[in-house]
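Components:
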Amino acid sequence: MNAVTEAVRELSYAEALREAMDIALDRDPRVVLMGEDIGVYGGAFQVTGDLVHKYGTDRVMDTPISELGGAGVAVGAALTGLRPIFEFQFSDFATLAMEQIVNQAAKLRYMLGGAVSVPLVMRFPAGSGTGAAAQHSQSLEAWLAHVPGLKVVQPTTPEDAKGLLLAALDDPDPVMIFEHKILYKMKGPVPEGHYTTPIGTAAIRRTGRDLTIVASGIMVHKALEAAREMEADGIDAEVIDLRSVRPIDRDTILGSARKTGRLMIVHEAVKTLGIGAEISAMVAESDAFDYLDSPIIRLGGAECPIPYNPELEKAAVPQVPGILSAARDLAKGRV
Amino acid sequence: MPDGYRDGNLPYAIRAYDADTLRAALRKMYLIRKFEEGAENSYTRGLIHGTMHLSIGQEASAVASCMALSDDDKITSTHRGHGHCVAKGADLGRMFAEFFGKETGYCRGRGGSMHIADPTKGNLGANGIVGGGLPIAVGAALSAKRLGTGAVTVCFFGDGANNEGAFHEALNMAAVWKLPVVFVCENNKYGMSTSTERSTAVKNIAERAAAYAMPGVTVDGNDFSAVAEAVDAAVARARAGDGPSLVENVTYRWRGHSKSDRNRYRTKEEIADWMARDPIPAFARLLVDHGVLTDADVADIEAETEQVIADAIAFAADSADPDPADVARDVYNPAAA
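Structure:
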């Protein structure tokens, strides 16, 4: 250990997002924050916090409870010179705004033959684990990732939360950021100042040689925990943080699958027709398929809405023991 | 001077605009009419596929609503948006080329009739979604206010959109934030086949302005001067920083909703009655009566627009189709890192 290691500054995931927005508001007068109760309330999850006191209500704008209209205002503002960051209070409420996201933001550039861009950032607090039940706990990132014209990212660390938000602001196209609510309080090292995390790149969080786990959102942390427990069994797992759902980092995933020959995909969103299916198909359609020693395993949310009871809620999404068990089977070729 | 206009009690259009401006307005109305007829004819001849929504009969509403706008001011338009495009200064050749699906079209053949836009003229685009443009217009007005551009946005929408949630959310936010936007409802009496009487709880859509604490006025949408007077006042109010307004132009589409319309929901008598209230000859007569133009001038303008349309169609027909290899171009901006 180097004796002169610099003190690593740690921030929570929410603080990192707030710092990114603070930097953006400070360096670019076109940036405005919009959303429900993001002003003096500080946001339902305290992500915008006290930014309204620093930048005022003209730049940290509380919207009425009008998700469709608010999203559309953000689209129109992005189209005409502002750089809005629009917060959905819960990602579930984006269902009310699908018209503007899917028909307008995603398609305007294409429909207009490239004559315009929609540099819009939208933030979606997503996921289960808060006891908020079926209408406040969904993981809908695959819905939006299915739409050409949108970019969709899922940061899993405070460092990436900040870096991806700043990258999204630099991007000329609409970028949807899915933030897992359980991660908001997670702390981690966060570089000072302005930096970006490239959209479209996955991150190898743990290198290993026996099997590959591609995980997204909070499942990255569960997969890492499972990977640590697997060490006792002599299984060396590689864990890839998907990080960007669209565009997807094909090279990193295929490279790892070729290397380990065993692939598992874990996400919280419902398994059927989910991102895991896309990744499986991507591997199956590529030369990496020839390197596989075992069928691909997908773990995802159960075929039900997110329930209220805490034990049911846990049962509805993949947990560490399930990942561990599936990984052991995969490593032994017993799938 | 004709009866009824004594002592300077002139129609607004005559008081407000000089002869060149009025001539240009009449010319645009003819261009819209001939454009729509040319589009319909091209469709019938199999030169255009898909569908289209013609605005024949609504020309006064489109042109008169844009009189106070410069290229820096914005409009958002609707599926029945050809007239708005022309009113905001679009090139007819590029419009036809878009109909024909050509690479020279406004959208390089990717958008078609329902997505023509011309950002260089402040036209943010037609829209295939009823009510889709309403919040976008409010966003454009928000940009103007925050960036201090002084621009005003005119948001065109139809009677059908007034029952969409987007209408209510958009008007509310525009009023809460006091934004420079004018909501122009072109009430042509039917949302596809369903009449406003059967779909809308209020008699006049402008009454809904009261719910959002903004002025609301209903005018004869086929009367150029009446529309210009109402919308100009609303634009001036927006530009002065006094917030949004709602203007309802009551008008009528002579043609069906789209090419699939079999006209089962209205009578021939009703259509004939509205065709007798054609806004173009009415405006031409106003200009002749007030000595702005002669009958010969009007005939010249009409003939000249026919040639413009013929040239535009020829340009479109002669233009190249897009290359299928480029099908996925312009989904994303290549400037992305």
